[in-house]
Queue: 2 jobs
Job 1
Amino acid sequence: MKSILITGCSSGIGYDTAHYLHNNGYRVYATARDEEDVKRLAQEGLDAYVLDVTCEEDIEKMLTIITKEGELYAVFNNAGYGQPGAVEDIRTKVLKEQFETNFFGLHELTYQALKIMRKQGYGRILQHSSVLGIIALRFRGSYNASKYAIEGLCDTLRLELMGSNIFVSTINTGPVHSDFRKNATKMFQKNVQIEGSFFEEAYKDELLSDKEKEDDSFTKGSEVVIANILHALESKKPKPRYYNTFATHLLGGLKRLLSTRILDKILVKI
């Protein structure tokens, strides 16, 4: 039975992927940062563990548990969150916090897992990026930066792992039904001084209004992502990058076709 470690399983794509793979023959190690979420996952029949990706010791303990029980076939680095706000309203310490989870936590798990996979001589690493690792949107600079960093890391890793039988796939996901936007709004209200900002009115209109509800035709279910995750896990030659949702294909295509100036004029309206 192939094993996979999944981070960020409290809701959304991580939660749905953990259950799907568990029900389809994988040994799933489902992890989340909050102990209550872990208890809920365990009650639902998953092998669930507390794992804060910003803690090196948590990662080491989790990998030790897995390797004592067998192989580590795959890792799905899914943990992450969004920190909205204009770049000029994001303090450096807030940006660092965004990177600690979205990028440095991802790297630490990758770093430790690769040592195991090198000894095994095989493995799969799935890195959850975003459509915002391909294009930028205003008020998403912190999140954009963390996902662009993942792109650079993965592009380099593929070159360094070529011929090793260890495959790295980047998962570029567009809008999917989850708690992501709700949690991002909480982080926005926590870390951004809205009143007095140059963008105060825009914030109220775009980030704190019904426009942020996930009722548009571009937002899809987790199944569109899970199908690609399954391919990345089971294909003899997994793709280096998987685009998920029409929005990702559309915006990724426009970036390849249009000049930066023209693309900026389109993106500023989104």
Job 2
Amino acid sequence: MLVIGVLASGRGSNLQAIFDAIQSGTLNVRVGVVISDKKEAEALVRAKSNQVPALFLDPHAYPDRESYDQSVVAGLIAHRVELVVLAGFMRLITKPFIDAFPNKIINIQPSLLPAFPGLHPHRQALAHGVKVSGCTVHFVDLDVDHGPIIAQVSVPVLETDTEASLADRILVEEHRLLPRVIEYYASGRIRSEGRRVFIEEGLSI
């Protein structure tokens, strides 16, 4: 069974979606560890309530980003993690991290990449007046929200939408999309060639 490590900085709703999918039998993986850069992150509470090791690593205790990432990598390796899932992890990761898990780090971004990478994607979408937004799961590289796209789900932007209402509707799709992509990865039905990602024919994201 594939062991995943989840990194999260906040409430951990996507982490909870992973736990729910595991409990329902639709996701056949084991969460080996949850790591956060925020001591009060609800994601750590969710991990403990699911009997999963929860690790807080304080960025201020390290001299630079690379040193911090090396500590994160050590924690992941100690728990035998094979796939790293960034689920609301609000830090840019560095080359030592990428090198430790080549093509084995995925992230979920609440926008249709390459549109609106980085922070405040819902605000960006509304400011640009787009009619469709959504969420993207992609492999991680050294650039922000830039790695090869695995799967996307679109969500219409309503005339009445606020940043919060759009975020809430997209979050529903995030909770559906992320566990499914992880399951496809775990079952060997996703492969990548350069920046192109292929999902086994006949499977529906």
